[in-house]
Each structure stands twice: as C-alpha cells, then as structure tokens.
Design a protein that fits this description.
This protein has one domain (2-134, 210-276): Rossmann fold. It has 9 helices and 10 strands. Helix 1 (73-87) crosses helix 2 and helix 4 packs across helix 5. It is of the alpha/beta class and 278 residues long. It has helices at 73-87, 99-110, 134-148, 159-169, 176-186, 212-220, 240-247, 264-267, 269-276; strands at residues 2-7, 12-17, 24-29, 49-54, 92-97, 115-121, 187-190, 193-196, 226-232, 253-259.
Length: 278
C-alpha cells in the first residue's frame, strides 16, 4: 500500500492504495478515531482488488472541517461520494469497519446506483437513539461543543505513550501491534512532542440520532448484496437482538460471527477475508 492524496470538491483526503488499478474497485472505510492503516493487515490478501483505504474526514491525514462546520452522517456520505468521484469510480464495493460500516450502510441507502456490494464488520447502520432522549442529547451536544472552543489537545512526549493510551481507551481490547499501526498514522509532531491528528470535534456526542425505526427504514432500501461479520462477544452498542432485527430488514444479506475483538480485521485478517468472501 502506498500513500496517495485525493483532491476532491469537499477537501483533500489522505489514503492508502495498493496500485492494482485494473482490479475491482474496493473502498475501505475505517472506524471511529482509527485511520486507513486499520486495513493494512488485510491488504496483502486483497491483491485482486483496486483497494483504496481512506482516512475519513477529521482522521489520519485527511482534511478537517472548517471551524464553522460540524461533522454529521449526511456530510460524510457526501465526502465519500466525492472521493469516489475523484477516483473515477462510477460503481464500487465498500469494506467498512464499525463507524465505516455504519457510513457504508447509509451510503448504499442514499446512492444505491453507486454501490456494488457491502462488506461490513461490526456495524449495520448507524447508532440509534430513543426518541425520548432527543432533547437531552441535543442540549449535551451544544454544551460540550461550546466548551470545546480553545481547548488544547494532549501532547505526548513519546509515540509509545500514545500507543499505550490508544490501547487503554479503545471500546474493546486492542493489541499493541494494531495500536502501533494506527498511531503511526494517527499522530503528528508538535512543539513538545506529538498530538492526535484527528479533529477533537469527533469526540463530541452526536447532536441528533435516528430512531431504530428510521434505521430500519434505511436498511430496507439497500438493494446491493451485503455481508455482515460481527465479533463474538458482540460489542455493547450492537446487541444480538438489535443485530438480528436489523439483518431482517436487509433484502440481500449474509450474516455471521467469528471469535475475536472489535478489531478482529486487524488481529485475524485471513479469517475475516475468508468469512466475508473477499
């Protein structure tokens, strides 16, 4: 995989590409606060594809939104389509992990004519919220966003400290080798050491979430084939009951689980590729 940049109508993306421009187009979308390096363990086994792993906006080496703009699911869909346009891909498959899988699901709903196939890991649709929590979520989001102005990021004196911090704050166990891959692309040098390259606004609570009923409506609109792989044990935000209810809404889907952690595509790449049928 080699570093590339994609200058789009939305901004400049950092990305990794395997160079097989004659292969089947496959766009890889990483999880929250990860980056394109998330797919490096899988990349050597995906040589038949024209694999492009994006740094999502606000992550890795990609552009950050202007100070007067906010990250949202809708805006990210437009970002991903802009990246595909710059690549010259009219139709393509998407490999998404966690947040990337949620975005991929909504991308297939919003632009079905562009998506050939979905390969999802640890996500099918976005996080939802109960309707009676709408007001409190909105208040919390506004309060925390306003408090963020002028706040400085943590500075690490040594990248190894960042590696350990990444391992400790992950939603599920992340081994040191995987953490180091992500950190190498996820920090930048500043005065006094290193800081996260990701936009601090990404750590804020989402102002408005879809209800589960709205998510189901979106999933019913996915027309391409979908393969979903989840780790066993499942993460707390994606319970078996929620997963089964969502799977039941997708017209063409195959779902399975493998023993492992949230980042099983990094720790067990061959098994994940075989399960997904890539």
């Amino acid at each position: 995989m080699r570093d590339i940049v994609l200058d789009t109508a939305r901004g400049r993306f950092g990305a990794l590409r395997n160079g097989n421009t004659g292969g089947v187009p496959l766009l890889a979308l990483h999880g929250w606060l990860d980056n394109a390096a998330s797919f490096l363990p899988m990349a050597p086994m995906l040589g038949g594809y024209d694999l492009v792993a994006l740094d999502m906006p606000g992550h890795g080496r990609s552009f950050h939104y202007p100070a007067d703009a906010e990250y949202s699911l809708f805006s990210t869909i437009l970002d991903v389509l802009a990246a595909a346009d710059t690549l010259g891909w009219e139709r393509f498959a998407v490999l998404g992990h966690s947040m990337g899988g949620a975005i991929a699901s909504m991308l297939a709903t919003a632009a079905p004519e562009r998506i050939e196939h979905l390969f999802l890991i640890e996500a099918l649709g976005p996080l939802s919220g109960s309707e009676d929590s709408t007001a409190s979520r909105l208040r919390d989001s506004v309060t925390q966003r306003r408090a963020l102005d002028g706040k400085r990021k943590r500075v690490f004196t040594d990248p190894d400290v960042a590696v350990q911090a990444r391992m400790q704050t992950n939603i599920a166990a992340l081994d040191e080798a995987s953490s180091r891959l992500l950190i190498e692309r996820g920090i930048r040098a500043v005065e006094g050491g290193f800081e996260w390259s990701s936009d601090v606004r990404l750590t804020l609570p989402t102002a408005v979430r879809m209800s589960e009923t709205q998510v189901h409506d979106c999933l019913r609109a996915i027309v391409c084939p979908v393969v979903l792989l989840v780790a066993d044990p499942t993460p707390p935000y994606f319970t078996p009951a929620m997963r089964d209810a969502r799977v039941a809404r997708v017209p063409q889907i195959r779902s399975m689980s493998l023993p492992g952690s949230h980042h099983l595509h990094m720790t067990h790449p061959a098994e994940v590729i075989a399960a997904l049928g890539l």
